[in-house]
Amino acid sequence: MTLLTTVFAAIASTIVWYKKAPENEMKVGILCWMYWGASLMWLVDLSILKSEPVFLPPPRSICSTIFFSGFPLLRWVLSYGLLYCL
Q1: pLDDT of residue 59
Q2: What DSSP character marks residue 10?
Q3: In sequence order, what DSSP letters do the residues of 40-85 get, joined into one string?
Q4: Does residue 33 surpass a pLDDT of 60?
Q5: What is the dihedral of CA 79, 81, 83, 86, to 10 degrees?
Q6: pLDDT tens digits, 54-75
Q7: How far apart are the first and last CA of the chain?
Q8: What is d(CA 45, CA 30) in angstroms, rounded to the nearest whole number?
Q9: Residues in CB range of 57: below 8 A, 6 or more apart
């Protein structure tokens, strides 16, 4: 579940990055690389554990998914997003 969420977030941030590439005011590329790095981390974790991906996770997994998918976005907003909103 965490792998799927971070891959979808990486794809979405990549699309925004390519559409906003000429301006590059918000530095969306950094957010994109954070999500792709997290996706790679979860992919390696899945391959090492050799377990089946679970699509209906327990509540603890849902909390970790929200945390690990939301943390890069929160970090990016606090670092770059707020600077250009003021």
Answers
A1: 64
A2: H
A3: HHHHHHHHHHT-PPPSS--HHHHHHHHHHHHHHHHHHIIIIIHHHH
A4: yes
A5: -150
A6: 555 666 667 777 777 777 878 7
A7: 35
A8: 23
A9: 1, 65
Radius of gyration of the chain (CA): 14
Give yes or no for a contact between 2 and 69, defined as CB atoms under 8 angstroms apart: yes
Q: Could you tell me the pTM of the whole model?
A: 0.68
**The pLDDT value given to residue 52:** 57
Angle formed at CA 33 by CA 59 and CA 76, multiple of 5 degrees: 70
Query: Tokens representing 13?
Result: 């941030």
Rounded Cα gap, residues 31 and 35, in angstroms: 6
DSSP-derived letter for residue 13 is H
